[in-house]
# Entry
Amino acid sequence: MEATVVDRSLAAGSLRRAVASLIIVLMGSTCLLAGCQLIEPDIRPRPPQNCAECHSEIYRQWSRSKHAIAWTNPDFIETSTERTEAQCLPCHAPTPLLQQAPEMPTELRDHNRHFGVDCKVCHFVNCKYAGPYDTWGPHPTTQETKRVGSAQFCGTCHLMELQEYKDLYVEAVESATTGGKPLKACAECHMAARRSRLTQGHILSLAHPKRIVRDHSFPAWTNHLICGAVEVTKLDAHREPDGPFTVDFTLVNRGAGHRIPTGKFGNREVLLVVELLDEQGSVLGSDERSLLSNRTEGLAPEELTPFSMTVKVPEAVEPATVRLVVERVNRDRSIRHTFAERQQPVAP
# Structure
């Protein structure tokens, strides 16, 4: 029985190797017939659309990301005064980051800037494309497991987030109170992992086994990402003598290695909403407070942050319930993502 299983395993392995060899030959021929430029000696000028020939799903994700419009985003153009602020430009159309030494500031490339932060920015080095796996393809490849996706690598451009990560998160997780919680790389939260093939959209993609492949849309806010990111550890409401209610609560950033919210540019706002409700659930009174991304506001990682807000209600009415909602909102607050929500009875 054991010999039969071994024989079958060896036969299956031989078959896979033979199929892979045939596919490699066919891939080269197919690329040539389709006008594919992947096998050209100089692959540096290749635009992202060419990468889509084999990496169709990854390209689709990237094309709807903020990286894809980094150079053409109207907010960036306005903030940089029509791209005249020199210090703003290098991170919106960078040269390949792996070509430079770690922790060195990036440089503005002199061509194809409209592609923004494209494939080459993160994956190109020494005329090869670098990724997390030792694999093969019709273009030169190399394995890279230390820099791509790490906090230091992403922090080349995301400087504020990196500094907060170093100052706040690293210190927090190394303290005794966290029980040795491991450090996170940026990709763990902002590039969700799933099992897939490295290449998609092509019959020859079957030559690649399914591996862990990350989401290249780089979501900053999704329901999956922010679920449980903020914890409400205390919520209490009490009426002041001859006055309004005071609502005290405590929040903890459990889900990010930087402040919530963070980032230097764009709309970065977390909205705290407290409501006092009657027994039917109608709102008797409410109050709001915004947290903005700067060095004094926002929720630091793993740190208990107390808040106190005031809510006015009619003197003759006693609220039955207090509700707290913690949301990320866009500029006009028409889009909201809920970080945390808690509701409990008001103590008599």
Remarks:
- Residues 227-345 form a domain with the Coagulation Factor XIII; Chain A, domain 1 fold (CATH 2.70.50.60).
